[in-house]
Amino acid sequence: MTESRREISLWRFGDEPCPYTLISEPKLTLELERLSGARIIGRGSIGTTACVSLQPNLLPENANQDRYVVREFAIGDNSLEPESMWKLRVVFDGHLGHQTVDHAAENLPRMVESRLQACTSTDSNLVSQVLSETIQAYDDSLLSDLYSAMRSDGQNPLSEEEVRDFISDCEFDFGSGGQDYLKVLRCMQGTTVVLVLTSPDCKDLWVASLGDSYTVLGLQRDGHHRWEAIPLSSCHNGRNIQERERLSEKHPNEPEVVIRNRVLGAMSLTRAVGDFHYKLPQLYTDRLFMNVEPGWSRSEKRFVNSFIGRNLTPPYISNIPDVRYVNLRLDNTIGINGKERRMCLLMCTDGLADLYEDENDECEETDMFRRWIEVAAGSESNGALALLRDALGGTDEATVSSMLTAEIYDKWMDDTTILFEFL
Q1: Between residues 76 and 410, which one has the greater pLDDT?
Q2: Rounded CA gap, 128 and 115, in Å?
Q3: Contact at 8 Å (CB) between 219 and 343?
Q4: Rg (CA), the chain
Q5: Is the Cβ–Cβ distance between 419 and 384 less than 8 Å?
Q6: Which pLDDT value is given to residue 78?
Q7: How far apart are CA 226 and CA 228, in angstroms?
Q8: In whole numbers, what is the pLDDT of the chain averaged over residues?
Q9: Which of 13, 129, 277, 410 sits most deeply, having the most CB atoms within 10 A of its CB?
């Protein structure tokens, strides 16, 4: 027998034993592959990207809001031969709905490609500037779309009557395609962005970070079997003291700008695409966002009402990413000296770190990063899938089965997306 109903007690399932279905091998591995959409993009061993994205709670309201994109393109006079292609990988961690993250996954990578192709040079500083400006421009376009839909220049507040008329038009428009309605929703939701770009010879690498997803570089040097793990992304949340200080400096007379490591006591992220209830004056939330139907759920509206009175001098959430350039042949800032035998790249949403939460209390974050690299690099097939399996319980069939089949209405784990490749 490969399946049987059991109960398990794990902290993430609550105080009571949780019913689940025990799945034995080899069916357990196949089920994890299916639920996570495990796949490998590309050919060969170097340059292929292993991908997984998982939310095991299959209720429609709990559907996975992570997205990822892997694409290649030529810049300038480069041919379309594989050895001449630039490679772009982008991971998004959406929240409050699917419209913003879907729109970002479809449009932001294309904007990056288009703007890079228009460049007259691939100087590292210029490329860094393009990546930063493109992410900001994409976020700005969401606001421009909102103003366009509202027939507003964004300078003069709309009256209550104008907002009611606009919402009425939105509802009618929603029934016939809903473009204005969707433009509003994309401002009411948000997503993080972490982006990695590599040059055709894989000598140059750029990382653009907006939010709290991760990018980790793995190095294995000549004469050593041990992997080193070097985080390349920035963590933009309220636990980051530099982010808290930045917010305090921008809002000096607002002691409640960060409460319990959350922006306005609510948002853990300090930088993101969308989330304009943190970027626009309160009246847009009160008059527009709160009245769009279907829009935020009742619980989401109660949550917004709990903090929106602290919105005094927006914006509070930034759309400016951190961009980092790395020379993969020689970069003294991270110890690359040309003696590296192998390199690899791992990108993931913060759901992966959450799955290691018990261990995070006992080990340094750098040790967790190294474990990620060692597990993924040690796989003979899909390194992202191997790491996901490790995070869910590894060889413990009962724990992994419970993480996939727990009979609970609410989410018991965060959406988790992992990309892994050798460079």
Answers
A1: 410
A2: 12
A3: yes
A4: 23
A5: yes
A6: 60
A7: 7
A8: 90
A9: 277
Whole-number percent of the chain with pLDDT over 70: 89
The residues, ordered by sequence, that sit 6+ positions from 119 with a Cβ below 8 Å of its Cβ are 75, 76, 126, 127, 130
- In SS3 terms, the chain reads as CCEEEEEECCHHHCCCCEEEEEECCCHHHHHHHHHHCCEEECCCCECCEEEEEECCCCCHHHCCCEEEEEEEECCCCCCCCHHHCEEEEEEEEEECCCHHHHHHHHHHHHHHHHHHHCCCCCCHHHHHHHHHHHHHHHHHHHHHHHHHHCCCCCCCCCCHHHHHHHHHHHHHHHHCCCHHHHHHHHHHCEEEEEEEEECCCCCEEEEEEECCCEEEEEEEECCCCCCEEEECCCCCECCCHHHHHHHHHHCCCCCCCEECCEECCCECECECEECCCCCCCHHHHHHCHHHCCCCCCHHHHHHHHHHHHHCCCCCCCECCCEEEEEECCCECCCCECCCEEEEEEEEECCHHHHHCHHHHCCCCHHHHHHHHHHHHHCCCCCHHHHHHHHHHCCCCHHHHHHHHHCCCCCCCCCCEEEEEEEC
CB 273 within 8 A of CB 319: yes
Quick check: bond before 294 cis, omega within 30? yes
Is 43 exposed, middle or buried (CB count within 10 Å of its CB: 0-12, 13-18, 19+)? exposed
Tell me the HSE value of 79 on the side-chain side, using a 13 A CA sphere. 3
* Domains, in order of start, for the chain: 3-236+271-275+317-422 (3.60.40.10), 237-270+276-316 (no CATH)
Across 128-137, 241-250, 336-345, least confident range: 336-345
| pLDDT tens-digit series, residues 40-56 | 998 655 679 999 999 99
Contact criterion met (CB below 8 Å) for 400 and 393: yes
Residue 172 has pLDDT above 50, yes or no: no
Cα–Cα distances in Å, from 11 out to 25, 117, 182?
25, 50, 38
Backbone angle region of 245, left / alpha / beta, with phi > 0 → left and psi within -120 to 50 → alpha: alpha
Six-digit token pair at 356? 């290691």
- State the residue for tokens 């509202």: 150
